[in-house]
Design goal:
By secondary structure, the protein is α/β, with parallel strands linked by helices. It is built from 13 helices and six strands.
Length: 236
């Protein structure tokens, strides 16, 4: 696990956002992977995922307080968590400031429709090149269409690790663009679901809020987060 944690961006969120802005302004490519315990635990049994996480073309950010704490426990200086929804929010605002383009891929038809409508209304300078829900059968064909459109940012919301593998398969077809797998962030960004109250976010208890709202998440939390903590203790 240590080799993943050593690759994670160590500095503050504001500094990472500055890097993203610089990429947008200079039309560079960046594939952001929000590294949480789930994707790190999956990589232990998935060679394709392991290769992707360690590839120099991917940029890992610490999505989850347990990843930050794990890094510190192994004497790797990681300052704070950087979540997928925060990155998506920042990119949308910056696209509007710069008058650049966006493609949205994932979630349900209802959610992505609501998000597209919100972006069009609130961020009129964004060139929304298209959107597609995540339930289409031929996802690779959609990505081929996205490659032809050449968006400055492509947000993909299909859950781990499908969204990351899909992006990674097609990354070589692009010569610019920021790509981020954002999981359930479209629900929050569209207003379909509310993010945790500020108290939970500030105290790094967003995971507890999610479990309280959706108890079905408890088994998934145990299989990933709890086992991740025990694995880090062994490595220490």
């Amino acid at each position: 696990m240590k080799h993943y944690l050593e690759k994670i961006y160590p500095n503050e969120k504001n500094e990472y956002c500055s890097l993203l802005k610089n990429d947008l302004e200079n039309e560079r490519q960046r594939f952001v992977i929000t590294a949480n315990p789930e994707i790190l635990m999956m990589s232990e049994k998935d060679d394709e995922l392991e290769k992707m996480l360690l590839d120099e073309k991917t940029s890992l950010v610490p999505d989850g307080i347990s990843v930050v704490k794990a890094a510190k426990k192994l004497d790797i200086p990681v300052k704070e968590r950087i979540t997928g929804v925060e990155i998506a929010e920042y990119l949308i605002k910056e696209l509007n400031n710069l008058g650049k383009s966006l493609y949205l891929f994932g979630a349900t038809n209802e959610v992505i429709g609501a998000l597209a409508k919100k972006i069009t209304a609130e961020y009129p300078n964004i060139k929304l090149l298209g959107c597609c829900d995540g339930y289409i059968d031929d996802k690779d064909r959609i990505f081929e269409d996205i490659a032809r459109l050449k968006p400055d940012v492509c947000l993909v919301a299909m859950g781990v690790p499908l969204q990351e593998k899909l992006i990674y398969r097609h990354l070589s077809s692009f010569d610019k663009g920021i790509f981020v797998g954002v999981g359930g962030s479209f629900d929050v960004l569209s207003g379909t679901k509310k993010r945790a109250p500020k108290f939970f976010i500030k105290c790094n208890l967003e995971w507890l809020y999610r479990i309280a709202k959706e108890p079905s998440r408890l088994k998934r939390f145990y299989n990933n987060n709890v086992k991740f903590v025990f694995k880090i203790k062994k490595e220490k």
